[in-house]
Amino acid sequence: AGLGEFRIRDLNDEINKLLREKGHWEYRIKELGGPDYARIGPKMLDHEGKEVPGNRGYKYFGAAKDLPGVRELFEKEPLPPPRKTRAELMKDIDAEYYGYRDEDDGILEPLEQEHEKKVIAEAVEKWKMEREARLARGEEEEEENIYAVNDDESDEEGGKEREGEEGQQKFIAHVPVPTQQEIEEALVRRKKMELLQKYASETLLAQSEEAKTLLGL
Prior knowledge:
The chain is mainly alpha-helical. It has helices spanning 5-31, 37-40, 71-74, 86-90, 108-137, 151-162, 180-199, 202-215, and strands at 54-55, 58-59. The chain is built from 8 helices and 2 strands, in the order H-H-E-E-H-H-H-H-H-H. A two-stranded antiparallel sheet has the order 1-2. The relative contact order is 0.06.
C-alpha cells in the first residue's frame, strides 16, 4: 500500500466506474439482439484465482481489499459453539447439584440449628410482647377461671341434687378438675409445641422430647 490509502481508493473507484460502463454496454448489446455477455462472459478473478470480492455491486481489487474497514466486510463470523444436548447436560448433574451433600461437611447443620434456636426465641418473645401489649390496651382480658363456682351456683346445684324421689340413691362422679395454674401451664406448653413444630427441625424436636422424658414432664 505504498500509494497511500486515498490513492488506492481513487484507483478502485475508477475501476468500478469502468466496470459499470462495461455493464451498460453489455446490456445494450443484449437489447440489440446480441449475446448476453453478463451471463456467458468469464468471471472476474483475482491473481489467486478467486472471485473478486464485492459488496452491493462494488468490487475491491488488489490492495483495496486490505484497506481499513474493507477487510471486516469479508471476514466470516465464527460459528457459534454447538449447543449441548439434554443427555450431555445430565451427565454433570448428581446429588450434589440438588444440595443433598450440603450437610456432609459438618458446618451447615450446626449453623442451621443455631439459627432455628434464635428464630424460636424471637418468635416466643414477640408473642409475649404482643400479648402484654394487648392486655395493656384492654383488648385481651385475663383468662377467666371457668371452673370457679359461686356460692349461689353451689347452693342451687346442691338443691337440685337433693331433689328426687324418696328412697332413690344418688351418685356423684368425682372427676379431677385441673386448676387455673395447670391450665395456663398447659396452654404455654401447647404454644411452645406449636412454635417448635413451625420452626424447629425434626432433630431438635426429638431432643426436646427426650429431655422431657428425662425430666418426667
